[in-house]
C-alpha cells in the first residue's frame, strides 16, 4: 500500500518540522506469511504516535512498547520478529512467519528534513531513487534507481531501499461507477484523484481518502499529475469528458489508460480519437477499451471491480492469457 507509505513520510516530515525525533521502520525481509511486503514503512515519535504498519498489529505493539521504555536510541537498529535465532521473544507472527525490520532514529535536524523531503519528492512523482544506508557508519545517500527492481536489497552492511512514486489513480468524471471504483482503489493503497467539471457533483461526492477537483479532467491531466505509476480511467460515457481525457492521458507516462464503453462504442471512439484527436495507432493501442476484465459485470460495483482488477493485472505485468 504505497499511498500509506506516502502518509508515513508526510507525517515524519511534519514531526521533524515540529522539532520531534522520528523513528522510521522499514520491513527488510519476510519469510513465510507476512501482512506487509519488504519496503513497507511505519513511523513513530517519542509519544508513541505512529502511522503505517509492519504487520497485523503484534509487531507494532511490541515496537511501541520498547520505544516507550527507551529502546532504539542508536541511529540504526535491526530487529527480527517471529521464529528463529535472534527473534524478539514472545512475539509470534501468523503461520510461523519471520519479519526483519530496520529502525532508523532520525533527530530533528536540517539533514533529516532534507533527507525526508527527497523521499517525499520521489513518492510524489520524481524519478525513483535508491536510499543506500550503511548500517555500521549510519551514513545515508541517494543514488538513481533503475526503472524496475526490488524494493529492498541487502549486501553485507549496506541496505538499498527503492523509493518509487506511490500508485495513483486519476478518475475522469463522476458517474455511478466512480464511487465504488475510488473506494476499491483506496483500499488497494492507491492515491485517488477524481475530477469532474460540475461543482455541485463534486461537492456531493463523498468517498473517504479521495481528493476531488471540480475541473475538466483533461485540464487536470498532465505529466505533472500522471507519472509512470499512474492509472487514468474515464467512467462517464460522455465523450466530451472521456475523449478529451484520453487525448491528454496518452501524452503522459501513465502505466494504464482506460475508458468505459461497449465493443461498438469503443470502436467508434477509436475512430473518433484518430480522426478528431489526431491520435496515432500507437496512442490508441495504449487505451484499454472496453475497460476492465471481462467478468460479466452488470452493477456499478461489479464494473468497478473489473476495472480495478485489470489495473492491478497490468500493474503486476500479467498478460490476459496468464490469468
From TrEMBL:
Domain XdhC Rossmann: 169-311
Domain XdhC- CoxI per the UniProt entry, residue ranges: 15-67
Superkingdom as given in the UniProt entry: Bacteria
Signal sequence residues: none
PANTHER family: ALDEHYDE OXIDOREDUCTASE MOLYBDENUM COFACTOR ASSEMBLY PROTEIN (PTHR30388), MOLYBDENUM COFACTOR INSERTION CHAPERONE PAOD (PTHR30388:SF4)
Stated name of the protein: XdhC family protein
Lineage: Bacteria, Pseudomonadati, Pseudomonadota, Gammaproteobacteria, Oceanospirillales
Amino acid at each position: 500500500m504505497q499511498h500509506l507509505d506516502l502518509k508515513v513520510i508526510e507525517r515524519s516530515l511534519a514531526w521533524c518540522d515540529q522539532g520531534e525525533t522520528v523513528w522510521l521502520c522499514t520491513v527488510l525481509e519476510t519469510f513465510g506469511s507476512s501482512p506487509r511486503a519488504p519496503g513497507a514503512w511505519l513511523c513513530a515519535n517519542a509519544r508513541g504516535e505512529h502511522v503505517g504498519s509492519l504487520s497485523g498489529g503484534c509487531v507494532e505493539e511490541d515496537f511501541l512498547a520498547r520505544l516507550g521504555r527507551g529502546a532504539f536510541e542508536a541511529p540504526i537498529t535491526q530487529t527480527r520478529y517471529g521464529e528463529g535465532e535472534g527473534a524478539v521473544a514472545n512475539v509470534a507472527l501468523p503461520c510461523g512467519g519471520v519479519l526483519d525490520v530496520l529502525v532508523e532514529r532520525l533527530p530533528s535536524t536540517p539533514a533529516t528534513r532534507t533527507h525526508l523531503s527527497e523521499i517525499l519528492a520521489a513518492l510524489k512523482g520524481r524519478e525513483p531513487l535508491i536510499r543506500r544506508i550503511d548500517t555500521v557508519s549510519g551514513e545515508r545517500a541517494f543514488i538513481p534507481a533503475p526503472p524496475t527492481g526490488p524494493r529492498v536489497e541487502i549486501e553485507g552492511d549496506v541496505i538499498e531501499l527503492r523509493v518509487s512514486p506511490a500508485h495513483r489513480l486519476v478518475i475522469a468524471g463522476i458517474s455511478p461507477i466512480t464511487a465504488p471504483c475510488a473506494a476499491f482503489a483506496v483500499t488497494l493503497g492507491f492515491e485517488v484523484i477524481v475530477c469532474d467539471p460540475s461543482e455541485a457533483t463534486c461537492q456531493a461526492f463523498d468517498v473517504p481518502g479521495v481528493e476531488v477537483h471540480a475541473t475538466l479532467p483533461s485540464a487536470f491531466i498532465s505529466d505533472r499529475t500522471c507519472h509512470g505509476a499512474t492509472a487514468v480511467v474515464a467512467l462517464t460515457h460522455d465523450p466530451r469528458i472521456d475523449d478529451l481525457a484520453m487525448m491528454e492521458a496518452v501524452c503522459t507516462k501513465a502505466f494504464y489508460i482506460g475508458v468505459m464503453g461497449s465493443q461498438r462504442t469503443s470502436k467508434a471512439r477509436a475512430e473518433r480519437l484518430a480522426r478528431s484527436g489526431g491520435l496515432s495507432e500507437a496512442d490508441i493501442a495504449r487505451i484499454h477499451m472496453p475497460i476492465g476484465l471481462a467478468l460479466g459485470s452488470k452493477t456499478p460495483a461489479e464494473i468497478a471491480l473489473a476495472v480495478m482488477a485489470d489495473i492491478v493485472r497490468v500493474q503486476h505485468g500479467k498478460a490476459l492469457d496468464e490469468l
